[in-house]
């Protein structure tokens, strides 16, 4: 007689497990910046078309997340921070994640092309390819500057939103892209300085692992300084104005000051106060991006009421 209690019952994945594949926390930032890119554009968009456009961008971002988790399942299983993700924990099979990622990618790109225009769909397709192939399969495991170049994947959404509305790429959308691109390295490295990771054990050459924390601190201040002209320059375009410029100047002074404080520290000082400065700068970096795009939205919202920007 077979002892049924000794047999293991396979885990059946739930909707929450499949949703986790899409990296919803990352998706929320994608939705916000894409929506701002769409709303600040000079061409009005029908609300339904705008909704479909942002939905497709969000689904495309989720598809990228699923493909990334499929490819990185081996290193996710090694690192404590990611070991509980759906694939390494055994809740979702790798083939399922690959299938979901490919299906959602095709759905998002085709629907965006049909609902809006081919430029927006092409940018979305390239973004998915860039994150899944260029970043995940190549850069992430080959260079300590992976986050610098790979950050482009997270910088495309406002450019795609702009393209949904206008059908083109302009200096405004390029600078929104550049703002996120240049913000990503100091934002990520501020986090990397105080989060104890096991990238080294997983064979991922993050800057803190390959060059140490002192070199990482120098990179934080350099990229923070390079970010300033990009952020200020966006305020001088047609979508900028006094509100954005005042917000940007204040935020950049705040952020650069924090990054300068990080640069002046060493491991002993950081350990002594449990990386308080690094943690504070990371929090400031979150406000930095949100408030920059929020100021752009405020500029666009006030123009119909007689506010002329520049």
Show the helix and strand layout.
Elements (H helix, E strand, L loop, with lengths): L14 H6 L3 H16 L7 H25 L1 H6 L15 H22 L2 H21 L7 H5 L1 H15 L4 H24 L4 H4 L4 H4 L1 H24 L6 H23 L2 H6 L3 H27 L8
Describe this structure in words.
74% of the residues lie in helices and 0% in strands. With 310 residues, the protein is mostly helical. It has two domains: 17-167, Orthogonal Bundle (Tetracycline Repressor, domain 2), CATH 1.10.357; 170-303. The radius of gyration is 21 Å and the shape is flat.
Kindly provide the radius of gyration, computed on alpha-carbon positions and rounded to a whole number of angstroms.
21 Å
Contiguous runs where pLDDT drops below 50 for at least 5 residues: 1-9
| Residue fraction in strands | under 5%
Decide which structural class fits the backbone. Answer: mainly alpha
Helix/strand order: HHHHHHHHHHHHHHH
CATH superfamily of the largest domain: UbiA prenyltransferase
Q: What is the CATH topology descriptor of the largest domain?
A: Tetracycline Repressor, domain 2
Distance from first to last alpha carbon: 84 Å
Total strands:
0
Tally of DSSP helical segments:
15
Major sheet attributes? none
Q: Can you identify the CATH class of the largest domain? A: Mainly Alpha
Shape: flat
The CATH architecture term of the largest domain is Orthogonal Bundle
Mean pLDDT: 91
